[in-house]
Amino acid sequence: MKKTISIIAMATLCLFFSVPSQAQSVTSTFKPVKIGGRIPDITLTNVCNYETTKTNLSDFKAKLIILDFWATSCTSCLANSSKTEELQKKYGGEVQFIKVTRQPRAAVLPFLEELYKTHPSAIPVVTDDSALHQLFPHINLPHYVWLDQTGKVVATTTAKQLTAENIDQFLSNDNIGNMHMKVDMNNSKSLTSVLKKQ
């Protein structure tokens, strides 16, 4: 009888300790990466407008990768979509734009089909994202993150800095020059406290 109770107790302990480790492997969390830091080679899932629906960030062989965080409700994002398309076509394999949204694929795909009905998009889109949003937390959209081909973060910008001149500057000498970096304003903090930290 004691042997049976011991076996049951051991089995219960094994179950107790194995459940949390399984839960952790399903929900992975990433720490935010700042300018100058390198991001892990994460796997992008729910990729649309690309040759596969799942790929690693390192599979994009461009010298410069620009992550374009957007949403279907963001009018500024939509106003800049033609600009990113033109830049993607101009720079071909040297620069790779990737659009990133938290929104579900079912909502995004019909929206994109309508948006690009007459001129197909050349930019891959990641939907249902959580990993890239964890790596690059931000408040305001659009939000652009510039990465070199090693995964190093070289800039975070608004659409204003998204110019051929700034891209040429980076491609010619692997540096962004004096490009203005984006600073998100957190509405829960006073403007004075934000400016003091800069």
- Compute the gyration radius: what is it? 21 Å
CATH class: Alpha Beta
> Tally the helices: what do you get?
7
Euclidean distance between termini CA atoms: 69 Å
Number of strands: 8
Instruction: Just name the CATH architecture.
Output: 3-Layer(aba) Sandwich
Using the coordinates shown, work out and report the CATH topology: Glutaredoxin
Helix-strand makeup class: alpha/beta
Task: Please list the strands of the largest sheet in the order they lie side by side.
Answer: 2-6-5-4-7-8
Q: How would a textbook summarize the main sheet?
A: 6 strands, mixed
User: At the fourth CATH level, what is the homologous superfamily?
Assistant: Glutaredoxin
Helix proportion: 25-40%
Q: What overall geometry do the principal axes of the alpha carbons give?
A: globular
**Low-confidence regions:** 3-27, 189-198
Description:
- There is one protein chain.
- The strands form two sheets. The chain has a six-stranded mixed beta sheet, with helices on one face. A two-stranded antiparallel sheet has the order 1-3.
- The longest helix is centred in the N-terminal third of the chain and has 25 residues, at 2-26.
- The chain has a single domain (43-184), classed as Glutaredoxin (3-Layer(aba) Sandwich), CATH 3.40.30.
- The protein has helices spanning 2-26, 75-79, 81-91, 105-115, 131-135, 164-173, 191-197, and strands at 43-44, 47-48, 55-56, 64-69, 95-100, 125-126, 143-148, 153-157.
- Mean pLDDT is 83; it is low at 3-27 and 189-198.
- It has 198 residues and is of the alpha/beta class.
